[in-house]
Design brief:
Blueprint lengths: L3 E12 L2 E12 L5 E5 L6 H10 L3 E3 L4 E5 L1 E7 L14 H14 L4 H17 L2 E7 L4 H14 L2 E8 L15 H19 L6 E7 L7 H14 L2 E6 L3 H11 L3 H7 L7 E5 L5 H10 L2 E4 L1 H7 L6 H7 L2 E4 L11 H17 L7 H4 L8 H16 L14 E5 L16 H11 L5 E6 L2 E5 L5
Parallel strand pairs: 1-4, 1-5, 6-7, 7-8, 8-9, 9-10, 10-11, 11-12, 12-13
Antiparallel strand pairs: 1-2, 2-3, 5-14, 14-15, 15-16
Helix pairs in contact: 3-4, 4-5, 5-6, 12-14
The structure holds guanine and fe (iii) ion.
């Protein structure tokens, strides 16, 4: 395939919270799907490249009212929980896992069921503009591998983990690894199989070492997984200090905080992403900084299970890497747009407080609010940084992952009737008001993976 060209106005954040708008940008993309150049109309080479683009049959040109955004990066999805999205959100975490989630995940012993659900989920996430996903699968080897294959085939950049949960006292007989040895062997062969698969996938698929969370794993399993992560230099994901119960449980069992335990077992490094992290303190934050570990902030899920609001602003000021996660199905919505909105709303409630019986000066946590542009950064640039991959920002050497947003779709029009026309205002309206109908096309690594214009 020769050079591809994309012309249109674009929004992205080169760094956290720093918005860049380029009107009528012209992107050239190489045969690997990487951005080569981004030209503005004032650049000397613009006219020449535009002439080449017009002569090419690989030219995408946006109309008035259409915009490019970077593809979104979802740092926390439980793929097997997709059938449960929107259900059973009234129980606390431990009950929710035991009564609803473990019986559902056990069904993925049936690989045909797994393929049906995973095909639907991957297509659905792509249609919502999500181009990269960090997935938990289940304990099942075959079904987990099927998820990686489906990502590969549908053109999504998938990072997939076969879940490890081996502790007899914490996991039911019908859904548990049989032994430490078996869970480590299976993880190692899964890593090798996904690495092999990834060789033929343009956008990349990656294996992820995935202890479910400290409460579900033996010390031997955690140590073995830490060693495997190091041996193969692969990503690691887990849940860390999510709820009051999960946080206290780890302290009771190990006499240490969740972060310290994960670090002691060699599970925190530059390619590690920990979900939730609600009960982190500053000393935990320092360990995150030293090891390069990132946070997957899951604001909708946190409303149900975390017993708290994660202080995004505080930990960004400490310097932590951070992105957004939907946490399907702890979070009901598969949409990162919805999670961007909730991240802003939750931060505002954290800042203002919620109990009017407390005086206004003591009601909230000062300096907690984040802007919608900062939340957009988390869903794009922050996610890429968390995964240590060249994604989420539109610049040379980065993957050409794009969503085409059309603000002129019938019955889904996003308009200020000429009143709010500054670029940042246009982006704010897109982030708050866009529906699935406004996401017309999605491109991953230069491949078209979703096309509403074709009635997909
Ligand atoms: N902690 C352990 N497992 C899970 C899970 O599946 N979802 C959430 N939200 N938290 C967990
Ligand atoms: Fe989760």
């Amino acid at each position: 395939m020769s050079t591809q060209y994309f012309k249109g106005s674009l929004f992205h954040t080169p760094s956290h919270g720093e918005l860049e708008f380029i009107k009528d940008a012209l992107l050239t993309v190489d045969e690997k799907g990487l951005i080569q150049t981004i030209l503005e109309p004032s650049d000397a080479a613009y006219v020449e490249h535009l002439t080449n683009a017009r002569a090419s049959n690989q030219f995408v040109e946006l109309a008035e009212g259409q915009y490019f955004l970077p593809g979104f990066i979802d740092l926390h999805v439980h793929a097997p929980q997709w059938p449960q999205a929107g259900v059973a959100l009234d129980a606390p975490l431990a009950t929710w896992l035991e009564k609803g989630t473990f019986p559902l995940e056990a069904k993925y012993a049936d690989v045909n069921f797994a393929k049906e659900v995973y095909n639907d989920l991957v297509a659905h996430l792509l249609s919502l503009g999500t181009t990269t996903v960090l997935y938990f699968a289940t304990i099942h080897q075959e079904a987990s591998l099927a998820l990686a294959e489906i990502c590969g085939k549908q053109g999504q950049r998938g990072l997939v983990g076969k879940v490890v949960m081996d502790l007899e006292s914490m996991n039911p007989d019908f859904y548990r690894d049989n032994s430490v040895a078996e869970s480590l062997e299976a993880t190692e062969s899964f890593i090798l199989a996904v690495k092999e698969l990834g060789k033929d996938v343009k956008q990349g698929v990656y294996p992820v070492v995935t202890p479910r969370f400290v409460p579900s794993c033996s010390a031997e399993a955690l140590a073995g997984l830490g060693a495997l992560a190091q041996k193969y230099d692969v990503h690691v994901q887990s849940h860390c200090s999510e709820s009051q119960w999960a946080h206290d449980h780890v302290i009771e069992r190990f006499g240490k905080r969740d972060t310290e335990v994960l670090n002691d077992f060699g599970l925190l490094h530059d390619k590690s992403v920990m979900a939730h992290c609600n009960f982190l303190d500053e000393s935990d934050g320092e360990i995150y900084m030293e090891t390069g570990t990132a946070v997957a902030h899951c604001p909708i899920s946190n409303g149900y299970f975390a017993n708290s609001v994660f202080p995004v602003k505080k930990f960004k000021e400490q310097g932590l890497e951070m992105g957004l996660g939907t946490d399907i199905s702890g979070g009901y919505s598969p949409s990162l747009y919805e999670n961007i909105r909730q991240a802003v709303i939750s931060s505002r409630m954290l800042e203002d407080g919620v109990d009017v019986n407390v005086g206004p000066e003591n009601r909230g946590v000062q300096n907690s609010r984040i802007s919608v542009v900062e939340a957009f950064s988390l869903a794009t640039q922050g996610g890429g940084e968390a995964l240590s991959l060249p994604i989420g920002v539109l610049k040379p050497g980065y993957a050409c992952d794009l969503q085409v947003i059309d603000t002129n779709v019938k019955n889904h029009r996003i308009s200020s009737f000429g009143v709010f026309e500054k670029p940042e205002e246009i982006l704010q309206k897109i982030l708050y008001l866009a529906t699935k109908e406004n996401i017309r096309q999605v491109w991953v690594q230069g491949n078209l993976v979703h096309d509403k214009n074709e009635g997909a």
